Here is the input.
Amino acid sequence: MWVYIVRRLLQSIIVVLGVTLITFVALHMGGDPTYLYVSERVSAEEIQATRVKLGFDKPLPVQYLVYLEGLVQGDLGESLTYKTPALGVVMERFPATIELTVFAMVIAIVFAIPFGVIAALKRGTAIDGGIMTIAMLGQSMPSFWLGIMLILTVGLGLGWLPISGHVALLEPLLKGNLRTFVASVPGAVPYLIMPAFTIAFFSLSRNARLVRSSMLEVLSQDFVRTARAKGLPEGAVILGHALRTAWLPFVTMIGLEFGSLLSGVVVVETIFSWPGVGRLVFNAINQRDIPLVQAAVITFSLVFILLNLAVDLVYARLDPRIRLT
Amino acid sequence: MKILGLAAIGTALLFGTAHAQRPGPDTLVVAQTTDPDSLDPAQIRSRDASNIAQHVFATLYEVDREGNLSPYLAESYAISDSGTEISFKLRSGLTCDDGSKLSAQDVAYSFQRAADPANRFTGNTPGFVLDAVHYKGVRVDDDLNVTILTNEYSPIAVGLLAETFIHCKAPYEKMTLARAAQTMVGSGPYRFVRWDRNDKVVLERVEGFKLRPAPFKTIVWRDIPEASTRATELLAGNVDIITNLSPDQIGRVNASAAAKSATVPGTRRIFVGFNQKPEFAKTLGGAAIQKVEVRHALQYAVDVPTICANLLQSPCRRATGLVNPPNDNKSLTPTPYDPAMAEKLLDEAGYKRGKDGIRFSLTLQGPRDRYINDTNIELAIGQYLSDIGVETKVEPMEFASTYSPLIRLHNAGPLFLLGSGGGTWSALYDMADIVAPNGGTNYTEWNDPEWFDGWKKINASRDPVAQKAIIDNMQRVFYERGPWLLLYFQPNYYAVSTKLDWAPRSDEMIYLYDAKRK
Here is the structure.
């Protein structure tokens, strides 16, 4: 098991290095970043002095190594917009994004399982057809369009949910204020529903299809037939035997799920005025705030990599064959 | 039955939450497109952040709706004979939000703090105002009198200094820069209550502030970046005013009973620059636009009112120069759309159509999604020019990473579309884009001797009447020989709740002191 963990950790470090390299090169392809640090009225001499001061006169490989050195020390530079450490700005917005992503993940998992199971059990019926049609829609509908439609129908037309905005939920908890956290829940949940559903709908649909196909495969296996032959109630057969086995491929997806949901927040946070990292990245790209974009991308990648690592370890624990491959 | 009951309670709770967002009668909610980067008065630079700050911080003077400078914290000013000392006399009895007395020392501190290089501020005051007035220092004459010292005379110094937010020394000296970026201790009619980043800023009326009426107890500035979400919040009644109404939403808003659109001609000047750099003269087209007669001919080729009507959804008057009304030269008339005249003038200039129908070729570069419908406007201009035989290749570009560096280095073009912010209070403020042949904002590197002589004459004169005559002549020079294909002043699009009485200003400033509930 330890050999497996070390091997996965080394792979993760290579992935992080790859992400930093790609981000660094991509953001420097846009031209000389010195102009982002000087006003329009400065002279050519002042521009050159700033270039030297910031190290932009050095070759790109040297700049990259300097950047990596800072990264190891937790220094990702100062945001051009906010004039404070870029990592601090990202971490300040991170709780709002985590709230949204976790809520979306709960929707994507909790609703996918019953829909997938029901579709499998009712295979070939109108119920199966209906669920799979909705799942197909969910996978083909762009999130920005779905978000705007929800705002127009549920928010404006029916007036059931707030159109945009945010009530902080995780922030009081991180500050150790449990009472405020509990008190915030009823106010925060209505704001979470539409944006979280917008992000989750694609994953929910994919997961429901995955659970359905996995269940169909398991339901035809001998051990399920044996369980039924033993006279077990149908609920126990489905939940206790079939779903437990069908669950395995789904567990693998959960780690990837979080990453795909995280990547979906950029557009959704903008549409719903959600004060998270996605919107921060969107604005930072528009303003070419390179340190902030780098900090956000690296934070996202680290979260993604760590989650995948955790899922792989759990999976290796559940299925020992994984460690040997 | 239990499930139905729970569902009903849940729906009622959700319904209640949605409606709980609606502002009360004494609360005004404004939705803008961006959140402030900082609340530090010396670091504020965006229009959206300034709109919030100007309700918290007072200024020495202010620009009114008609573009006149009027006293605010100061009751008068005087300029020395040399023009390098501007003295302000403050009103008596002024205080800041925290109750501390506001005196000349605090005014001096506001400038000194902004100018201190150790603070590394890049806001409007340190990044623009102090440079533009040639700031040297500040002198406290007594409790109510303060003098700004400059290195040279600037005829627009008072108006520029009126952009500086005045704050008290006592609270700001106690704060770290990081803390000052997150809070405001002001000198104006509203005090800062709360800032939920990327969500809202809440202000509350300062009871007893005498220099301005403050009609609402609470003002909430919401940050809603997405245009359709902003409009929907307005239609749902959760917001009273929205900025940057997308032109495609105008019909939707006006069809509702909840809100109406309000469009005003803005002060941002949209133009196509004719780059005069010698490098561009190496091509036939680049050389052609360095000739006055060609530039003059091309003015007739573009149908600006049609562009406004179709691509901006708003009627507009074609610009006659770089100066905003009401300070523009009223004797100049907008060039009409007359492609036949454009062709005739190009023929006379020696650029006849070739066998392929082309006179010469040009490239028109421009930003993408920087100004309203900019890419389509660039394409339309390219087509108008191509129609008269000036084959025009249009290159829309991403603004921050690609276009902005080209503009800054004066390398865009030879034709380039740009918008430049202006004002209503002074012609010189608008003309200051082109103060020197190699000036940073003279993006076309235009070098007309009569224009630049005009600047010398203005700086040598202290007589407003004589200055006005010089300014009018300079505007004529610009109209006849200028380096811009003159287009329009970009309209500002707002939408306002039908329950609110409020009119927008053309200078993009959101001034809420005269707003009232119907």
Observations:
- The first helix of chain A runs from residue 2 to 28.
- The mean pLDDT of chain A is 85.
- Residues 91-288 of chain A form a domain with the MetI-like fold fold (CATH 1.10.3720.10).
- Chain A touches chain B through 46 residues (CB under 8 Å).
